[in-house]
């Protein structure tokens, strides 16, 4: 099954462990520095490819060295990156993440070319030919908030394409715009803060039910160390997080989406697909960066044994 990931593409530079920013010109020696493909589209695309899926990624990046490196990383991981459009007036979106010893991840971020993505970047028939279309970060690629794009999604769904969606930010104004996509989505996977901001409900179960009323057939709210909550018309189920030693939480949400989509692609029901997502997120949490420790589907599913 082909998966099209569409949306936010970011280059992450990560260092760990970082306990503080040194004064003046001082240098701190760290254990590890990595550069990875990240963002709710690019990070999910790499994770999907490592889990054995055929992946095409669509987005906007700069015509710069950062963009060259991002394309190289994605291509090396088996992602078809020919759907990325290059912008000369905008840099590739990038983040610098100093990872704390407890796995926390403050960031320095440039939105860059992600803000320029429009429906014109999506090739004719691409979405309808896919088994799954994953909207990764439509809150920051708000050029897709367009009736023409919604009709593309509707046409794809009529031919059997499944649409999933994840978000990137926690900013209320951006999340309010993302609500327009909900009637066109089959499975929505926000985190707890995003679900609360979109609904005004601090209880994740109430938030999930409110989001279901806006169109998706499934709402999966990720809860960090508390696992996740899966809500459908049939009821709400909670899944615990898997007990692993957390090194870095970067990309855990993207990995969860990739595991969930992989489960769907293998014909699993929603709750079992969410367990696959849980295992993928737990795998990534054990290393540095959004693709850490993902060596294949068998190793991920071994965590569930």
UniProtKB/TrEMBL annotation:
Alphabetized UniProt keyword annotations: Kinase, Transferase
Family annotation (InterPro entries): PfkB_dom, Ribo/fructo_kinase, Ribokinase-like
Record carries keyword Transferase: yes
Domain Carbohydrate kinase PfkB: 12-294
GO BP terms in the entry: phosphate-containing compound metabolic process
GO molecular function ontology, one term from the record: kinase activity
Listed GO CC annotations: cytosol
Protein name per UniProt: Carbohydrate kinase family protein
């Amino acid at each position: 099954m082909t998966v099209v990931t569409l949306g936010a593409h970011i280059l992450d530079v990560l260092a760990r462990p970082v306990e503080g920013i040194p004064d003046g010109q001082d240098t701190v020696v760290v254990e590890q520095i990595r550069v990875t493909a990240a963002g709710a589209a690019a990070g999910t695309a790499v994770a999907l490819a490592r889990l054995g899926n055929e992946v095409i990624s669509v987005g906007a990046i700069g015509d710069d060295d950062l963009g060259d490196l991002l394309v190289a990383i994605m291509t090396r991981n088996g992602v078809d990156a020919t759907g990325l459009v290059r912008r000369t007036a905008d840099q590739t979106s990038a983040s610098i993440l100093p990872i704390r010893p407890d796995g926390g991840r403050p960031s320095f971020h440039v939105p860059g070319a992600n803000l320029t993505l429009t429906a014109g970047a999506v090739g004719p028939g691409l979405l309808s030919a896919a088994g799954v279309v994953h909207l990764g970060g439509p809150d920051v690629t708000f050029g897709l908030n367009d009736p023409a794009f919604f009709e593309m999604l509707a046409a794809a769904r009529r031919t059997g394409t499944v649409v999933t969606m994840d978000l990137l930010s926690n900013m209320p104004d951006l999340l309010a715009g993302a609500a327009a996509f909900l009637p066109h989505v089959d499975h929505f996977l926000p985190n707890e803060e995003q679900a609360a901001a979109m609904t005004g409900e601090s209880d994740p179960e109430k938030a999930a039910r409110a989001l279901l009323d806006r169109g998706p057939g499934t709402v999966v709210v990720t809860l960090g160390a508390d696992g996740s909550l899966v809500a459908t018309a049939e009821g709400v189920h909670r899944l615990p997080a898997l007990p692993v030693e957390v090194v870095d939480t970067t990309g855990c949400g993207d990995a969860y989406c990739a595991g969930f989509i992989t489960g769907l692609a293998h014909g699993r029901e929603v709750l079992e697909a969410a367990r696959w997502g849980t295992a993928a997120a737990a795998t990534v949490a054990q290393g540095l960066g959004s693709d850490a420790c993902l060596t294949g589907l068998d190793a991920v599913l071994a965590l569930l044994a």
